[in-house]
Amino acid sequence: MNKQYDVVIAGAGPVGCLIAERLASQLNWQVLLIDKRNHVAGNCFDTFHDSGLMIHRYGPHYFRSNNKNLIEYLTQFTDWIPGNYIVKSSTGGELFPFPINLLTLGQFFKIANLDADGAQKLLEEKREKIEHPANSEEFVLSRVGREMYESFYLNYTLKQWAIHPRDLAPSVCGRIPVRLNKDERYVDHEYQLTPAKGFTELFKKMVDHPNIEVRLETDFNDIRSTIKPAKATIYTGPIDEYFGCTFGKLPWRSLEFDFQEKPVEFEQPCVQINYPNDYDYTRTVEIKHVTGQQHPHTVISYEYPKAEGDPYYPIPMEQNHLLYEKYKVLAEKETIDNNVFFCGRLAEYKYYNTDEVLELALKTFEKIKAQHGN
Ligand SMILES: Cc1cc2nc3c(=O)[nH]c(=O)nc-3n(C[C@H](O)[C@H](O)[C@H](O)COP(=O)(O)OP(=O)(O)OC[C@H]3O[C@@H](n4cnc5c(N)ncnc54)[C@H](O)[C@@H]3O)c2cc1C
Q1: Quick one: which atom of ligand 1 is closest to the CA of 343?
Q2: Which residue lies with its CA nearest to atom 26 of ligand 1?
Q3: Would you state the pLDDT for residue 374?
Q4: CB of 14 closer than 6 A to ligand 1?
Q5: Taking a C-beta distance cutoff of 8 angstroms, is the pair 123, 134 a contact?
Q6: Region 315-334: what's the mean pLDDT?
Q7: In the chain, which segments carry CATH 3.40.50.720?
Q8: 7-40+207-250+315-372 adopts what CATH topology?
Q9: Which end of the chain has fewer CB within 10 Å, C or N?
Q10: Residue 285: beta bridge partners?
């Protein structure tokens, strides 16, 4: 006879793993956690290349957060090392600190010893006076002017999305700060950390609980009619697929990763180099700068954006958002009628960083607890 589970969780990514852990340990629920891939950790999955070097299989994950409680929660499952997240952009045959900071401005405009006041004045001169930027192109022009827009943003955005920045919302390029100091870190967050043994180990430990059964290489669509949980379902897969793509498919941008071993200890000066204007790939990543692994060789990942393939980035255009809203209405009804909770990147058709999605997962757990807490 089939075991009776309290909850079935579709997707063993960060969201699925966290909710599984909370329901098992806090509500004593019997949990079935499934994933169609052959591993847990979702897109945070890291593994070992043939060389023995750790790689981030689905793109580099730079974990950062401003949430002390979240860090304390995760610290139950991992030790941390500092996140050495430094990015440079290669343009005109030179490497520049990126996001743009005082050093980038000084180097690009060939001004020695540029200070914050000088940079402010320089940007005032360079900026295009667009009061209410309506798209990413206008946003960047109004911030740093045309020369920097064309050198750092335009072609990178075209490669990444195959969409012109003038057809993308201001927030797409607006997420990247411009700094009037010499801070070279990629992000501003208070905690910039990486799990000492990697993300996969963190999430494996999170779901290592007697109440949690993990089934890999199992598609939710193959079990949804046969395994009926007693209390709830958590769905973290693509929302359109849950509803049989009844309104049409939500479009995603995909990526292909080419991992190449190099017979040198380090190939590049920092973890990531962006190539806005050269090559078909957008960036090269040498994750060894972050993992701190000691090894005589290194591995570089070349990242090629693609239209087809695994869903990585929701495409930030109005018509896609409207399509998602139609599915959201169905999802809300499904939550009320059948206790199916939709949470995460694929289920909400939204790009979230890992810390953000883990916070959402905690909120979803609290919602379920409020309804069902025993
Ligand atoms: C290229 C890239 C780079 C990123 N870099 C960063 C970064 O630097 N820092 C950061 O904080 N975040 C980063 N992220 C974001 C991070 O990957 C996500 O926030 C996080 O993985 C989302 O967790 P999730 O559980 O919602 O989804 P996912 O990690 O996608 O997990 C969902 C899981 O559901 C499974 N699934 C889907 N459909 C089914 C089904 N029908 N049946 C069974 N299982 C199913 C999938 O196989 C997957 O394992 C990056 C993402 C990408 C794509």
Answers
A1: 26
A2: 344
A3: 60
A4: yes
A5: no
A6: 96
A7: 7-40+207-250+315-372
A8: Rossmann fold (3.40.50)
A9: N
A10: 272, 301
